[in-house]
From TrEMBL:
Region Disordered: start-end pairs: 461-482
Keyword Transport belongs to the record: no
Top-level taxon in the UniProt lineage: Bacteria
Phylogenetic lineage: Bacteria, Bacillati, Actinomycetota, Actinomycetes, Pseudonocardiales
Ranges where the AMP-binding enzyme C-terminal domain occurs: 397-471
Keywords assigned: Ligase
Name the record gives this protein: Acyl-CoA synthetase (AMP-forming)/AMP-acid ligase II
Keyword Ligase: yes
Any one GO MF annotation of this record: acid-thiol ligase activity
Length: 482
């Protein structure tokens, strides 16, 4: 067992909780949980996991919501050295089964009414003392799964060494933009699931900065901000647009708000300026990937439309089609290195080799760096539709649609959507002259890939437009009348 000062993640987080002592660190309804209480909960759940025979290298899947117990269970599963897989809501049954087949030794759910291990039962275990962090640096600490639009979500494998190197719980390593954000996280509003990489890691940042994590059972904005007097939260671009529109129409009292972290998809310069004009200097625009973690973060003082200046610990290269770095001001594909990046996709060497190359992560995003180092995102090389900040690959959606008996061919493009940022628009070649039923197609896709992949629009075409190569040219479809 390593000495305490050499213990890996989550040692730094547990030390933060120990320092917090009697300070409330989690607020859930009328309940406030102190640092000491949360640390004791981590110790008891970790003891329960060890009693169940779980330890370093064992796969532990968590199917939990947003509660102090869920946060403690994540930390406890890491404390015993497990390979933690958070299964987020919204996946199909087949996708969940796929994830639970990734060498999972145990599944932890919330309540006593469930089969297997539950948080309720684990938390009743008596702990012999404070939790000890038993993770081995080279072991995979967590699997962060992607959207699952392929039908089988890819699981990004992050080691204990990488999680320990992350700056989130280490103030001495905070880049300037993170330090400024941290100073505004007095009351950080969380919702949805703590299996979200962004939601969890900024919760850790808030606690490290001396703030309180506030659970929003009803996360609608601006009501959740005013009801909880929140100082900060994470929003997608569509949620930001709705909040801005609501403030223009009927302004709510957002005087407590000091930071909105916009994450998941690019924010245009015009929309960025509008948000700053309406909401004030509270908009932080983050850029990162499941494979890399945070790459860059724009503060309210950075130029609108950029994602800020990547910190010194993050390397960003903009490369042309031949893989050669290009000068400032020139667009290209972004390759990055971050302290906490994944080492590859779990049990998927072929896809790993495409993305993780020579120590770099190929983001498949296009962008440019200006002379001052500000990063601007300009597009993406991946054929994806980003729905509610989650990328869904077009190819698998097309294949599922084309399997429908009324469809001969299918071509999927992304279209703007006020509710989800982007949505699926399917151009289809009917089979045998039959007219496809859009509602039936949506049900067909939803049953196989989930509702986010279902086409909101279906347009019959006689044949796709062709590029000079003779291949279908979806760029022309993207610009055709909708």
């Amino acid at each position: 067992m390593p000495a305490r000062d050499a213990e890996p993640f989550p040692r730094a987080v547990l030390d933060v909780l120990a320092t917090a002592a009697d300070r409330p660190v989690f607020e859930h309804g009328s309940r406030a949980v102190t640092g000491a209480e949360l640390l004791d909960l981590v110790a008891r759940i970790a003891a329960g996991l060890r009693r169940a025979g779980l330890g370093p290298g064992d796969g532990i899947a968590l199917r939990l919501g947003v509660t102090p117990e869920a946060f403690a269970t994540i930390l406890a599963a890491h404390a015993v050295g497990g390979r933690v897989l958070g299964v987020r809501p919204g996946l199909t049954d087949d996708q969940v089964r796929h994830l639970l087949d990734l060498d999972v030794a145990a599944v932890v759910t919330q309540s006593d009414g469930s089969d297997g291990l539950t948080v309720d039962a684990l938390s009743r275990t008596r702990a012999a003392g404070p939790p000890v962090c038993a993770g081995r640096p080279g072991d995979v600490a967590r699997l962060l799964h992607t959207s699952g639009s392929t039908g089988e979500p890819k699981a990004c494998a992050q080691t204990y060494a990488a999680m320990t190197a992350a700056w989130t719980a280490r103030p001495d390593a905070w880049p300037p933009a993170i330090r400024e954000l941290a100073s505004r996280l007095d009351r950080y509003l969380v919702f949805g699931t703590l299996s979200s990489q962004v939601m969890f890691e900024y919760a850790v940042l808030a606690l490290t900065a001396g703030g309180t994590v506030v659970v929003a059972d009803r996360p609608a904005l601006p009501d959740a901000i005013t009801r909880h007097r929140a100082s900060a939260s994470v929003v997608t671009v569509p949620r930001l647009a709705k909040l801005v529109a609501a403030q223009r129409r009927d302004p709510a009292d957002l005087s407590s708000l000091r930071a909105l972290l916009v994450s998941g998809s690019p924010l245009t310069a015009d929309r960025h300026r509008e948000a700053l004009d309406v909401l004030g200097p509270v908009v932080f625009h983050g850029y990162g990937q499941t494979e890399t973690g945070t790459i860059s973060l724009a503060t309210p003082a950075d130029p609108p439309g950029t994602v800020g200046v990547p910190p010194a610990s993050v390397l960003v290269e903009v490369r042309d089609a031949d893989g050669t770095p290009v000068p400032a001001g020139v667009d290209g594909e972004l390759f990055v290195r971050t302290p906490a990046q994944a080492e590859g996709y779990w049990a998927d060497p072929e896809r790993s080799a495409e993305v993780f190359t020579g120590g770099w992560v190929r983001t498949r995003d296009l962008g440019r760096l200006d002379a001052a180092g500000h990063l601007t995102l300009t597009g993406r090389t991946r054929d994806v539709v980003i729905v509610n900040a989650t990328p869904h690959y077009a190819g698998p959606i097309e294949r599922v649609i084309a399997e429908h008996p009324d469809i001969a061919e299918a071509y999927v493009v992304a279209v703007p959507d006020d509710d989800t940022g982007e949505a699926v628009h399917a151009f289809v070649v009917p089979a045998g002259g039959r007219s496809p039923d859009p509602a039936a197609l949506r049900e067909w896709v939803t049953a196989r890939l989930g509702a986010a992949c279902a086409p909101t629009r279906v347009t019959p075409i006689a044949a796709p437009p062709l590029a000079p190569s003779g291949k279908p040219d979806k760029r022309l479809l993207s610009h055709s009348p909708k």
